[in-house]
């Protein structure tokens, strides 16, 4: 239960930081089965990405460290429960939906 609380606290603080911080780009893409939007936070781009967030059933906010510094150009792989890769990116931004 503590792990869930810590995870939720981290997610909430990351979301708060996304509102405050400014950064770089947004990119929409797709694979055979996956449609995604990948972006960093910037005043214009962030509002476009956030406006589309409700269209996606998985929303990842990438940050690291105690201060929650946003990550860009992260290597991200998402697999199904069988271990099959569903999405693989070398340039994951701080927001990946």
From TrEMBL:
<protein>
    <submittedName>
        <fullName>Uncharacterized protein</fullName>
    </submittedName>
</protein>
């Amino acid at each position: 239960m503590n792990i869930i609380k810590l995870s939720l606290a981290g997610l909430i603080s990351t979301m708060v930081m996304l509102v405050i911080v400014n950064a770089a780009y947004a990119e929409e893409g797709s694979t055979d089965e996956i449609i995604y939007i990948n972006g960093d936070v910037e005043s214009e781009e962030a509002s476009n990405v956030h406006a589309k967030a409700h269209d996606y059933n998985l929303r990842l906010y990438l940050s690291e460290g105690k201060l929650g510094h946003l990550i860009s150009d992260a290597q991200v792989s998402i697999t199904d429960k069988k271990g099959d890769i569903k999405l693989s990116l070398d340039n994951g931004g701080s927001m990946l939906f």
